[in-house]
Amino acid sequence: GLLDAVPSQLIALPSFTRTSTCPYPRCKSTTVFESGRDFRRHYRQHFKRFFCRYSECPQSAQDLQEVGTKGFATRKDRARHESKHKPTVRCPWHDQEGQQCLRVFSRVDNMRDHYRRIHKG
Where is the stretch described as Disordered (predicted)? Predict the structure, then answer.
């Protein structure tokens, strides 16, 4: 079956001190973390632990061996991605004769960009 997410407990966290910066290799953040909570939240962003729940999607994972090569760091990122599988945002453009644009988008911001570029030109 598909994996939904890797439990956060499986991600080993480095120890936190009041002046911790991120120890993750290649992390470009220079933030000095004031709290363990902020440190953990940042550190976990480096790990893709949430997977697409559509089985045919390349971002879904079948087993733990695919962890790290697929997926998303946050539930929010996964939800944004999954919305692509069922787009529901319709372009509102129509002309005086009732002709409508038939484009459908998964995100409102993409629809607005399309509307400005194509219909307001």
Answer: 68-89
CB 48 within 8 A of CB 73: yes
Report d(CA 16, CA 117) in Å as an integer: 48
Q: Using pLDDT thresholds of 50, 70 and 90, give the confidence band for residue 1.
A: low
- pTM for this predicted structure: 0.59
CB 62 within 8 A of CB 3: yes
Q: What is the pLDDT of residues 23-72, one digit of tens each?
A: 888 899 999 988 888 888 888 888 888 999 998 898 998 777 766 678 89
**Degrees, nearest 5: CA angle 31-33-38:** 110
| DSSP secondary structure, 25-40, as one string | TT----PPBSSHHHHH
Closest CA to 120 of 99, 89, 92: 92
DSSP 111: H
